[in-house]
Structures are given as C-alpha cells and as structure tokens.
Design a protein that fits this description.
Four copies of one chain form a homotetramer. Chain A is α/β, with parallel strands linked by helices and 324 residues long. Chain A contains nine helices and 15 strands. Chains in contact: A-B, A-C, A-D, B-C, B-D, C-D.
Amino acid sequence: MINVSIAGGTGYTAGELLRILLRHPEVNIESVISTTSVGMPVAEMHRDLLGETELLFSDCFINPDVTFLCLGHGLSREFLEKNHLPTDCKVIDLGNDFRNEPQFGDRNFVFGLCELNKELLKEAKNVANPGCFATTIMLALLPLASKNLLQDEIHAHAITGSTGAGKKPVDTTHFSYRDNNISVYKPFRHQHLEEIGNTLVAAGNRQLPQINFVPMRGDFTRGIFASIYTKWNCSMGNDDIISYYKEYYASSPFVFVSEQPISLKEVVNTNKCLLHIEFYNGYIHITSITDNLLKGASGQAVQNMNLMFGLDETMGLKLKGSVF
Amino acid sequence: MINVSIAGGTGYTAGELLRILLRHPEVNIESVISTTSVGMPVAEMHRDLLGETELLFSDCFINPDVTFLCLGHGLSREFLEKNHLPTDCKVIDLGNDFRNEPQFGDRNFVFGLCELNKELLKEAKNVANPGCFATTIMLALLPLASKNLLQDEIHAHAITGSTGAGKKPVDTTHFSYRDNNISVYKPFRHQHLEEIGNTLVAAGNRQLPQINFVPMRGDFTRGIFASIYTKWNCSMGNDDIISYYKEYYASSPFVFVSEQPISLKEVVNTNKCLLHIEFYNGYIHITSITDNLLKGASGQAVQNMNLMFGLDETMGLKLKGSVF
Amino acid sequence: MINVSIAGGTGYTAGELLRILLRHPEVNIESVISTTSVGMPVAEMHRDLLGETELLFSDCFINPDVTFLCLGHGLSREFLEKNHLPTDCKVIDLGNDFRNEPQFGDRNFVFGLCELNKELLKEAKNVANPGCFATTIMLALLPLASKNLLQDEIHAHAITGSTGAGKKPVDTTHFSYRDNNISVYKPFRHQHLEEIGNTLVAAGNRQLPQINFVPMRGDFTRGIFASIYTKWNCSMGNDDIISYYKEYYASSPFVFVSEQPISLKEVVNTNKCLLHIEFYNGYIHITSITDNLLKGASGQAVQNMNLMFGLDETMGLKLKGSVF
Amino acid sequence: MINVSIAGGTGYTAGELLRILLRHPEVNIESVISTTSVGMPVAEMHRDLLGETELLFSDCFINPDVTFLCLGHGLSREFLEKNHLPTDCKVIDLGNDFRNEPQFGDRNFVFGLCELNKELLKEAKNVANPGCFATTIMLALLPLASKNLLQDEIHAHAITGSTGAGKKPVDTTHFSYRDNNISVYKPFRHQHLEEIGNTLVAAGNRQLPQINFVPMRGDFTRGIFASIYTKWNCSMGNDDIISYYKEYYASSPFVFVSEQPISLKEVVNTNKCLLHIEFYNGYIHITSITDNLLKGASGQAVQNMNLMFGLDETMGLKLKGSVF
C-alpha cells in the first residue's frame, strides 16, 4: 500500500484526489493536511464523502510515500521550504511552481504529462502536474509536434468550467453573475502558454510555435472545451493524420480520437481526453475535451502516481462518467 | 417630474430600480448614494447601464421627493437615524425594518402590497415594501383570506433564484456549489412568515393561519415559484373560486389567473404575478410565480411610488419579459 | 461471471446500466438489445463510452443469466410476452409494470427496495425496481413506517432533474424552456404514490398514509431533492429518532443520515441516499436526496442484481461523485 | 399607427416581436398568422403574454402596412409567392432568403444592418434582416472595414444561446444534453459567412476578408458572445482606434464601446451591442455581445421598421435588461 499525504486538503483538487484515492485499491491515505481545519472531519468539508471516510484534517504528515501538493499557485515552493519532507518521499505538485522551473534543492520535477513522458515518470521522484488548459491543448497538438508539423501560428479558444477558479467565492464565480454568462479572461497571456510551448518543443517540434490563446469562462462547473486550428499544408493525407493520431495514442489509455464531433459532457467526471479532427479551408481543426479536475488536475496526478509506483496507469481511474 | 434618491445604490435591488427608473417618464434620478463608491460612474458598477446613464455615485441626497432605501435588512432604521431627510420627502423601504413595526418617529409605514392596500398607498408618505417570498405567497392567498376561508394549516414550498441572496459572494451562491444544485434553508422559520400572517389577517381572515413554509434555493437567478395548498371544504364551487380570484384581481394590473399550469419564466423580468389554481384530494392547490427583483422588490417599489404620487400604477413597469 | 442482457439499450437508464456494468468485476454484458439500432456500436449512441466498449446493439439475447428491462413504462409486460426468456433467466424490470402487480405468468416480482426487502431479494428471480421519486420518498419514511409512526398526512414536495423525463426531446425538456425554469406536474396524482403507500404498509405502518405529493421539474439534469414533513407527537425524543434512523440504516451501505443540512449534489453520480432530519412546529421535517438515474434507477437495479446473485451489495457501485 | 402583420407567428422570433410591438406606441398588430394554430389565443402559445393581449392567430393578413416574415429559412420566398401582399405593404424578412439575393420580383431587399445602411433603410420598402451571428461579428468589424483595415485573415469564435436553434425540440436542444455542455457546429462553413463578407466589402473593405469562424453551442438561452482577432500592423495608435470606434458608432443608439472587459449578460434582453477592444502580440482582439433574439433578430427588425416609417430609431426598444 502506498501511504499518501495531501497538503492543502480543503480545496477542490484535494477533494477530487480524495474521491479517487479513497477508492484506489493500493492507497492508504495517511494524512490530509489543512492548517485551518485541524481536527475537522474531512467529510464535513467535502460533504459528498459522508459515509465514505472517518479521516480528520491534520496539520502534519507522518511518513508518507508520496505527498500531493494541492496548494495555491506559488505556495508549493513555500510549503517545501517550511516542511522537511523525508528525502525518499515522492512529491506530486498540482500547482504551477515547478512546471517551467523544475529544480528545487535536490528535487528535480518531471513534467507530468503522462502521454509524453511516461518512461520518465516511471522513474520520477518529483512530478509537476500540468495545468488544465495546458493538458487539453497539448494533447490536441502532441502528435503534430512530434512530427515537427507545427510550422504556423496556432489559434485556440478554450472554455472552462467554474471549478477551475477554485473554492473561494469571488465576483466572477458568483452564481448570479456566472449563470448563463460568458466572458473572456487573460486573452493572449494566460500563464499556461509557457508550459504548452515548452512541451510542444520537447515533443519534437523544432521551433516554439506562436499560440494565440483566448481562455473563456463558461457557465458550467466541470470541463474544458478547446477549439484549436492551424494552417495545414502537410503532404500527409487527412485520413493519414487521423490514423497517426490514433496510433500515437494507442498506448495511452485515456486519450481517444472520435470520428464524430464531440461535446464536453462526453468526458465529464472521467480521466479521459477526447479529440476530434477535421480539415477546412487549408486548416486542421482540432477539438479537445477534458474534465479540468480530473485529466486536468487530480486524475492526472493519480495517473502519475500510478506510473511512479509501478502500478497499472489506470488503477483507480476507470471512472463512470456523469454524462448529463 | 419626481426627484428620486436611492440609498444603497450598489446592490441588486438598487440596480434593478435604476433600470426601471431610467426609463420612467416621470422620474428624475437626483442621487444614487453609496458611501463606498462615491464618484464612481453608476454604469461601471451596474455594467449593463453602459450608454444609458452618466450618473455618478454620491454620498448624499439633495432634495428628493422620495428616497428608496435599498440597504441590508436592519439598516434602514439606522439610515433614517443618521440622515435627516426633509420631512416632506417620502420614503420607500425595500428592507424589512418597517414591515411589522411600522412606526418610526413621525413616520408611519404603510405595508406596500399594492393589491391589498391600494387606497392607503395613494395617501402614504412612507411605505414598507413587502418581501419577495411574502409577496408571492400573499398574492396566492389574499382572495381566500378576504373571505375568511383560511381555516386550516397552509403548506407552502417556494424556490427562489440566487439574486434573492444579494450581491456579496458567499458559499451558497458560489457557482460551483449552486449550479445544478437544490437545498432548503430556514424551513418553518423564515422571517417573512410574520408579514404574511399579519397581511392575511388584515385582508380579512379572522384568525392567524398556521403556515408551514419551506423555502428552497434554486439553481437559477431570477424568480420565485411557490406551491401552496390547504384543506378545502368550502361550499363555493371550484369554478366559482377561480372566478372569484379573477374578480378579486380585476383591478390589479399585474396579477393574473392562468387557466393553464404555469412555469416560472412566464414572469421573469416582468412585474407580474401569475396564479394557477387546482383542486385535489380535498385540497386547493395554488401555484404562484413572481420575479423576486421586480414584483418581489424593485418593481413593486416603483408601483408603490406611482400610487403615492398619483400616477398610473403601471407607469414604467410594462416590461418586456425575457421568457427564455 | 454473470451474463447480462439489456433490453431497451438506447435509453438513459440502459446507458447508465452500461456505465456501471462495464466496470463491474463479475459481469459479462452478453447483449444490448435495441430493435431500432441493430448493428450500431453502443458507443456511438452512448458517446461517453468511446474507448470503453466495442459492443454492438443486437436484436436478441442469447443465454443471459439476467435480463434488465429498460423499456418505457408499460412495455415490459409486452416484451416478456413477445420474447420467451429462458425460465432460469432472472429479470430486473426498471419500468413500473410489476411494482404494484407483481404476478406475470410464472414470474413473481419482488419489489426491489434493497433497504426493505434485502432478504427477499437474495432469493428473488424477478425484481420490480422502484421508481425514482418513490425511492427518494420511501427511504425518508421507512424507519417511521417500521414503527407505525405515520399516523397523519404526509406532505412532500420533490424536484427532479430532466433525465427523469428520458431521452426523447419534448416541449418540457427543450433547453430554451427548461433552463432557469421551474414547474409543477401531476400534483397529488403522481403514479409513484401507489408503490410508496404499499411499501410503507409493508414496512410496518398499519394504515395506508395519505401522501400529498407535489412533483416539480427542476432545471438540472440529475437528482431528486425531496422535502417531506408530517405531524409529530411521538413520545420518542428527537435525538432518539435520529439515532433510530441511523440504526435502521446501519446495514444499508448507501443510506446515510447527515447531521448537517444537505444539498442535492452531495449524491449526484453516486448510488447514495442522504437524509437530514429536523423538528419544528410540531412537525418532523426530512430532506432526502438521490441520483434519479442511480439509486433511483440503474444503480439500484445493479444493487438488486448483486443481492440476487449472492455478491457484495456494493460491488461496482462505489462510484466517485461528480459533486460540482 | 402602423398596421403590422406577422407571418409565422408561433416561433421564437415572432414571440419576441410581439413582446416588443405590444409595447410599441405607434404600432397596431393587425394579424398574427399561423396556418397551424388559427383561432388559438396568441397568449396561449406565448404564455408570458397572458394579460397583455387578446389577439388570436389567424391565417391571413388584412391590410398591413408592413409584414414581418418569421418563417423558417428558405420559406420567405415561398410565402411571398403564395400570398399576394398589397404592393405598398412593406416587408421585413427575418429569414435568410434575401440577405445575399436581394431581388424578388419587384421587391428589392435592403440589407437591414442599421449601423451601416441607415439612410438606405429610411427609404426601403423591403428589408432583409441580418443573421444573429452575422450582426454580432459585423458590428465588431465595421469600423475597421470602413477604413479598409481588414487586410489579413480574421479569426472568430462565437458562442450562441439555445434560442438561436428555434422552438422545435431536437437532440442538440434537449435539456439533458445541452445543460452544462459545449459543442462546435458548422466550423468554417456557417451560412452567415457570406453576408458577413459582403457587408464588410460594402462597408469599405476593398477585398473580401477570409474569416475563420467557429460557431459554438452554449448552455444558456439568450445571447451571442463573439471573440474576434486579426493581425494588426496599422499605423493608427491603439487609443486612436478605440476613439474611432466610438466616433463611428456615435450616432448608433444601440452600439457602445466598453473600456472594461464585457460579459454576455450585460446585453441580454436588450437591443444593445457592446464591444471591447484590446491589443496583444500584434493582434487586435475584439469581443462583441448581443442578444440573438433582439439585436440579432426581432429587435433589429423593429429598429428597421422604425427607420422605414420615419420614427425614432429607438422607439419601443429601450428595453430593461435582465442582467442576471
């Protein structure tokens, strides 16, 4: 059994981790850390867990095999500085602290995109879990990058559910504002652009592609729908590209290419990413969908844990979708 | 022209008042008071008003003919203590301070349910605007109360939109929580029960009826849907009761009895209240719908203003519904 | 392995059954029957199943150990007449054909409320799966019925998600109508009333209680929220009643009593039922929540299958909630 | 008074026209034509109109000054062929029949984009009302086109509410599917592309710009949110462009440039279009919002009627937004 500790236990990604790990056959949750809620039953905060766990929030870890950091962006570094984790305790960071700056003391963070770095992750002691927008967009483009086919600008719009904005109520997550509403935020300058670009180069694209990315706030809670296109004057036939995508992801148990147009709820509450590819006007157009809390956060984190500990990649992650 | 001042100008009911009054042919908005936003353009706070007004928030009134109090519950009394309104300035309070305790210094507040107190309101200098749940439930029961027919317990469930909870983001109005969710709050002890009971007695019911009222939080923004029933062993025929309802409301320009079952969006963004009446199992069952921000708050407040100033009751209130 | 056949394979309850059974360790899905879609991949209809199954719809069963009937109400009887199931093939009917009329030829249907009939279900060959509203309301009242404490009228409002209305688009499930809308349907005369009453008597209540039940259509997709109350002049203390509820459901792995008020999404996408109990004004007030497609339909059907085949009741049903 | 006839009276755009015209001070609704519902009260179909009109559907016009055609796309031509409208009866077509092919017998249709063709519309006898996506996108680009500044490809994503898909329930407007869901349809090949291109040229752009347009289905009912960008290497300063936009629309009473980022609900239930402009990475990025049933359909149709009959352009169209 893997002894797991979760830091930042009251937030959304921690709650989702708990939902997965409580059902994971090889995991023992040793501690759920929250400095603000010590002693409170975990199921009182994550109310859906009533009847599923008697765990209480604590303020420290004991001797975990792996610690998941579910802290706000920028706080993981601080946590590691303040808390002296045992050297052999692995770390999976769900924040963005180590995605683009992987070194921290003796710890070197592998970028946790399972579909690109599977072999590295099997050996990794520290993993920087990718961002949710980044995962959704990277999985749409990896096969093209691997063949150095991203030669032109990339145009991407992606619309996210409100859980991406976390647990704290603010104006843009106020129900009276958000319901039936749509807005744009951080257009052309979202913080995930850096990890997307770096990853596409790591995957084989020789030059860093320019990505014009417009993130949007959607009036739903879970999921990211990305619509991406780039100029297409490749000698490969259209069907060949689609076949290549399928082949590229053949050993990836959570990424699938759909022949039919896709809609977001086909992946909600699962760890899957679905892709759909069409060609128009000299463009290749790719739609990509994930659940931001699962493949975009806690699900991928568990997938990484499975790889790091030599388990089947899908263990605990064959989740029934909610669909509706 | 009526010179209007609005106190508590940044909240939801003030915004809705502004939307109505900016289109009202007999109103001049003299001041929109907000101690926290003095100098800010009103349209920067109420963003939909872009292009419709150049008003700025101020911290005082000048010489209004009427002041609308859009403050938090309990704060109207405080406002009147601190600010010495001209004696001849009328007051319409949208809070609950004077609904059940109508006397404040020289000011005596008339309960602003237009369908019950129309004649009193024409002479009123101070009006306590009814609560939103209260309005929706009272309008369903007034005709029965007027004939002393409320002899048994009343059972009421009513589900409200999120705007009823105001502008400040809190846990129960967080989109990730509220979307696709339903919950109950303050069952059997909602603060509107007192004004409902008092009003039904004032309408003619000799005894104070017991009302079992369960309010629910709905996953929509505007409107209240109430489902109400009470035992029925009246000698009047069912059709006669429906006819009586129609007759009772014949001179009320915003209350209608529908022969067909009703759904909430038939009144959203209007000042209307629709009622539908059926009989089953020895019960009379009444459904009643309003827009909580309009007939349940700012719309009724303007209706009261119209009555107080001798204008047509519907002036500025023939609003196009949003329906969808 | 249990060989399973599903009749009516294209509908919502069949889809939900497939999602569960494809992950069930002791099930082999032998056939998914749809006379209208023979030969079509199941994952083309239930699009979220892409990558999870290669099954095709067929027009017949082969030799199933159990057949789930996911047909429209009234069509199960017809199916059994037209198709000669092997005598030893068990049947679980998700429709309402046999809930109140349990005999059909040699087949005698046990009412599949696991929390009441667990021992009977372990021996059952044919099961009539309860309705979704019925399940939610019965579980709220069973402990009281078991002590013959339902002596007065019961007042119930329950609001349901749109999936309860099935897959076929109609006016009341049209998005433009249903979004942000609320309505009542079949008040005081819903077809589930009969099975609720019969079950409460079977549970131990000596007289059939009168239930005033108002079903409502909610603007969400999954779940039922029921608010139920009845007069309370029992000699048992309030805390004792809550303790008794916990004790009553101690061996029921999916029913829990929450000390805190509950909200619908705490059970969505799970097989759980949560109850919360309070006392006011001489009434006991119980809120009860389920996912209409799971504990209210397909989840309970699988729970019944587990019991019928001597498996752990929870097998395949420890589902991660979607929560948001 | 203008005598108005509405053909295709049961659909969504007709309902919205009725809501506006019943409040329009210079309009008399002579006939609401529906061949399928002759004799039915209009308020029985458009239920929110209860108490607002006694009109019945009829099967013919009498002697209208103007007929609005609210028929399915492609059916306006057929209607005019079958029904011999008086020669002096003006026609406003809300379908797409005459937008790109303006000639029909003696009737020549002016493209009804008020902000471009105001002077022509004042003289027009026949108007082809623009499409909803088209309006939202054209208004974002008109000022650039007028200066021949659209020299590069245009990238546009726009997400629409469900009312754009009309009244008939279909799979993609089924609530259980659409709620909390997002999908793409007709990417790069939407039928509005032609009228957008033609209009931009008519506005002054010398070449037909290539527009890469991805329409999306949103999980809300009203409104279109468009996010549009194109390469920007203009010698005009950024502030100058914004000033030019304001100047361009100075005489357009419904189009406003917001200094702040915009969100869809700022225009819902109004006839307004809001624009917001920013500059990044060598691109100009414009967001544009309208209500698809108002500025995108029936509101603009009434605006056209006002122009055609010499009335104030805004008459009947100063609508209170619903905002929430």
